[in-house]
Automatic annotation (TrEMBL):
<protein>
    <recommendedName>
        <fullName>Reverse transcriptase zinc-binding domain-containing protein</fullName>
    </recommendedName>
</protein>
<dbReference type="Pfam" id="PF13966">
    <property type="entry name" value="zf-RVT"/>
</dbReference>
<dbReference type="InterPro" id="IPR026960">
    <property type="entry name" value="RVT-Znf"/>
</dbReference>
<feature type="domain" description="Reverse transcriptase zinc-binding">
    <location>
        <begin position="129"/>
        <end position="215"/>
    </location>
</feature>
C-alpha cells in the first residue's frame, strides 16, 4: 500500500496493462475526493486535505518545516486533550501570530471517532464514486466518448474477463508476437493460424485468412456486404452500425468478441500446447461459444446452435 489509500504505482510492464491504467487514474480520483475523518488513522496530518481550506502543509509551509511530526497521521497528533505538536526549536515572537492562525483553522476539527476514515467523491451528494460520472467528468472536454467505443466493449453481454480482453485488443495491447517483439523478445513473427504473415493484432484478429473463415459464418448468415476494416476499433464500430439488420441487437454485438476470443484460444492452443483444431472444429467452437454467451447455457447439438444463428 501507498499512503494508506491506494496500492503502489505499477512499474512492471508484463501483463498489468489494465491495472496500470486504473492505478494511473488514482491521482485524478484523489483530487476529486474529500476526506471525512473517522479515527484519523489513514489521514496524513500535514499532506492530506482534510480541512476545507486544503492541506496544512500548503497553508502553513513555515510551520510545517518547524514541526517534528511531518509523517504522522491525524490520529497520532490528536489526543483528547487537543493537538500534541512538537517543534524543532522554540518559536520566535514573529512566528507566534502564524501559530495562532494555524490553530484558528484547526478549530473547525471536532475530534476523531471510532469509525473508519473515508474518501468521498465530490461530484454527487452522497459521496459515492461512480465510474459513469467520473468518465463523463474527465472526458467532458474531449470527444473521447464518441470516438472511443466504450459501450461496445463494456456494455456487451459477455464475461468481464472477455470485455477486458476486447479492451486490450482495441488498445492494440494483446501480447501477439509483434507486441512481444516490440518488448525485445526474439521470436519468429509468423502468424500461428496461417503461418504466412506477421502476427500483428490487426492481422490475427481481422485479416488472417483463417480468422476470416470465422467472420464469414456470421457475415454470410445475413448476406452482409462487408469489407474488413483496418483496425479493431473500426471493426467494432462498423459491425455495430449493422446491428439494425439483426433481429437481436444484443446478440449481434457479441459476435466480434466471440470471433476474437475463439481466435485467441486457438492461437494459444497452437502456441503453448503445440496442438491445433481443424477449421471445422474452430467454426464449431466459435458457434458454441456464441450460443453459450447468447443463452448463458451450454448446448452441444448443432441444431440449437443453428437456431441461435437463425435468431440474428
Ligand atoms: Zn494469419
Amino acid at each position: 500500500m501507498e499512503n494508506h489509500w491506494s496500492t503502489k504505482m505499477v512499474t512492471s510492464t508484463y501483463g498489468t496493462s489494465i491495472w496500470m491504467a486504473i492505478r494511473n487514474f488514482w491521482p485524478k480520483l484523489r483530487e476529486n475526493c474529500s476526506i471525512r475523518i473517522g479515527n484519523g488513522m489513514k489521514v496524513s496530518y500535514w499532506e492530506d486535505s482534510w480541512l476545507e481550506q486544503g492541506s496544512l502543509k500548503t497553508l502553513f509551509p513555515d510551520i510545517y518545516i518547524l514541526n517534528q511530526q511531518q509523517k504522522d497521521t491525524v490520529a497520532e497528533v490528536w489526543s483528547n486533550q487537543g493537538w500534541n505538536l512538537s517543534f524543532r526549536r522554540p518559536l520566535n515572537d514573529w512566528e507566534i501570530q502564524r501559530l495562532v492562525d494555524f490553530f484558528g483553522i484547526l478549530e473547525q476539527f471536532k475530534g476523531t471517532s471510532t469509525s473508519q476514515d473515508g474518501l468521498f467523491w465530490n461530484h454527487n451528494c452522497n459521496g459515492n464514486f461512480s465510474v459513469k460520472e467520473a468518465y463523463k467528468k474527465f472526458n467532458s472536454f474531449t470527444h473521447q466518448i464518441t470516438v472511443w467505443p466504450w459501450e461496445l466493449i463494456w456494455k456487451v453481454k459477455i464475461p468481464p474477463k472477455v470485455s477486458c480482453f476486447t479492451w486490450l485488443l482495441a488498445k492494440q495491447a494483446v501480447l501477439t508476437r509483434e507486441n512481444l517483439m516490440k518488448r525485445g523478445i526474439q521470436l519468429s513473427p509468423r502468424c500461428f493460424l496461417c503461418g504466412e504473415e506477421a502476427e500483428t493484432v490487426n492481422h490475427l484478429f481481422l485479416h488472417c485468412r483463417i480468422t476470416n473463415i470465422l467472420w464469414s459464418i456470421f457475415i454470410n448468415s445475413k448476406g452482409l456486404l462487408w469489407v474488413m476494416p483496418r483496425n479493431i476499433v473500426q471493426a467494432l464500430k462498423i459491425w455495430s452500425s449493422f446491428a439494425y439488420i439483426s433481429g437481436h441487437k444484443e446478440r449481434w454485438k457479441i459476435i466480434p468478441t466471440c470471433i476474437w476470443w475463439s481466435v485467441w484460444k486457438e492461437r494459444n492452443l497452437r502456441c503453448f500446447q503445440n496442438k491445433s483444431n481443424s477449421i471445422e472444429k474452430m467454426k464449431m467452437n466459435c458457434l458454441v461459444l456464441f450460443q453459450f454467451w447468447c443463452k448463458q447455457e451450454y448446448m452441444e447439438d448443432l441444431e440449437s446452435v443453428l437456431n441461435a444463428l437463425g435468431t440474428l
